[in-house]
Amino acid sequence: MRQYEFWFVVGSQFLYGPEVLETVAARSAEMAETLSKKLPYKLVYKVTAKTNQEITDVVKEANYDDNCAGIITWCHTFSPSKMWINGLANLQKPYCHLATQYNREIPNEEIDMDFMNLNQAAHGDREHGFIAARLRMPRKVIAGYWQDEKVQTRLGDWMKAAVGVAVSRNMKVMRFGDNMREVAVTEGDKVEVQAKLGWQVNTWAVGDLVKEMNAVTEAEIDALMEVYTASYDVATDDVAAIRYQAKEEIAIRKMMDAEGCKAFSNTFQDLYGMEQLPGLASQHLMAQGYGYGGEGDWKVAAMTAILKAMGEGGNGASAFMEDYTYHLVEGQEYSLGAHMLEVCPSVAAGKPRIETHHLGIGMNEKDPARLVFEGKAGKAIVVSLIDMGGRLRLIVQDIEAVKPIMPMPNLPVARVMWKAMPDLTTGVECWITAGGAHHTVLSYDVSAEQMRDWARMMDIEFVHITKDTTPEKLEEELFVKDLAWKLK
Ligand code: MN
Question: For the chain, which terminal residue's Cβ has fewer other Cβ atoms within 10 angstroms, N or C?
């Protein structure tokens, strides 16, 4: 991934004289340097801005610097906000206002009017906050002491969400085949997502993929087989089936890399010339950070890649997922998530096994190899982006994943079991009321707050189903938002 960084822009004015401004600049540089050691991305101190021109210049520079994933502002002193209007009005990068203070404590003996004039973030940050509110700027406000772990964690989480914005704006999705016939929720306006989210969603012929597969060499397959056997337990004698998946993976990857695509979709209804639906191939591509969507679902493919990029180390535990079936025994209400083949091993609790089984859906001439595993336990979210016609809605639901409560020895695919918030049936009522898809991205590494930040920066509707959501309150929320988004 690109070496993203964030810029620290500190507001001030000439009123205080050069000595104070030098102190502000030195402390701001020190803060950026200290924070850079704690944050997932570098924070670069840029300027102590005192004029309209300085702010306009740094915003222009930020807009055109591909490595700059966002700006973080703060006012050590008071910075009259009319000088920020021209710059902020042109800002095209994510924006976070860190309302903090250089010193933690009010020094009882030392405090006098000089100290007060130097350390006035308490009112400087309010003036700064007003102009962003007045300009209706989409921004994140984080308040607290800059050396506190909680503040640093929140700042780091916001940075990852902002990187999700940069990844989104550069997202290219490779489609093999169209969407599954007659399915509604996987459809969507590809022009709208390009204008709004930056995604370039285009199609390539399955025949071209087959041609690319036929050009894959035995040596290339041997090399990938070594990676498979090092990463997974081989629990099948059908080596030819695994080698076929390796051939598919190599060919898909070559085509994606040649086009700069970070996500792909395919469909079991269009495998013309292929012996098997890519199973292990898609799973291992996802493990490397590529997004995937089944049945032509290019929206979930792009979202999977974006959440992966937002997660830990630029490839978090985030997976293409599908709600499959329920366990509705009182006190043990769970969703069982899986897919025909393609669940990403980044969410596995243990070492995945490579197995081959018959797949009845689609035109599979041979039994496809796939990774079989249980998902890990822990707090997570499921995310669905839907096209409401005229706008996009991002739905996030809090979930608690558990170790599957039964072994299900005849289930030939990877599985994740979870409890949706606020409880299974209320959660299902809320999800269905909001129009959430059966396909989701399930993530252990990305939080609902980060998805809220991402949706705000992308200027799309955000719906969050939590432990406190009721279908009644949600229905009203959706009604009001529907009106608001029509006016927007
Ligand atoms: Mn599906």
Answer: C
Q: Of all residues in the chain, what percent carry a pLDDT higher than 90?
A: 96
What does the block give as tokens for 372? Answer: 């079989």
Query: Closest by alpha carbon to 309, among 457, 173, 159, 174?
Result: 159
State in Å, rounded, how far the first CA of the chain is from the last one: 34
Of all residues in the chain, the percent with pLDDT exceeding 70 is 100
158 touches 450 (CB < 8 A): yes
Residue 80 CA to ligand 1 centre (angstroms) = 54
Instruction: State the average pLDDT over residues 336-356.
Output: 96
Give the mean pLDDT of the chain: 96
The Å distance, Cα 446 to ligand 1 centre, comes to 22
Token pair in block for residue 315: 């490839």
Q: Is 251 helix (H, G, I), strand (E, B) or coil?
A: helix
Residue 22, both tokens: 């030098």
What is the C-alpha to C-alpha distance for residues 313 and 445, in angstroms, rounded to an integer? 10
Q: How far is the CA of 293 from the centre of ligand 1 (A)?
A: 8
Tens of pLDDT, residue by residue over 175-189, are 999 999 999 999 999
Q: Distance from the CA of 270 to the center of ligand 1, in angstroms?
A: 14
- List all residues 6 or more positions away from 264 whose beta carbon is below 8 Å from its beta carbon: 173, 174, 175, 176, 252, 256, 285, 290, 291, 292, 293, 301
Report whether 49 contacts 58 (CB < 8 A): yes
SS3 content of the chain, % helix, strand, coil (to 5): 40, 25, 35
CA 459 / ligand 1 centre spacing (Å)? 27
Among the listed residues 379, 487, 392, the one whose alpha carbon sits nearest the alpha carbon of residue 434: 392
Distance from Cα 362 to the centre of ligand 1, integer Å = 12
* Residues 267/405, Cβ–Cβ less than 8 Å: no
**pLDDT tens digit sequence for 424-437:** 999 999 999 999 99
Give the containing element (helix H, strand E) for 386: strand 378-387
Tens-digit pLDDT profile for residues 238-247: 999 999 999 9
CA atoms within 13 Å, Cβ hemisphere of 239: 6
Tokens 């009182």 belong to which residue? 330
DSSP 294: G
Q: How far apart are CA 214 and CA 208, in angstroms?
A: 10
Contact 326, 299 (CB under 8 A): no
Pairing of strands 318-329, 439-443: antiparallel
Tell me the whole-structure pTM to 2 decimals: 0.97
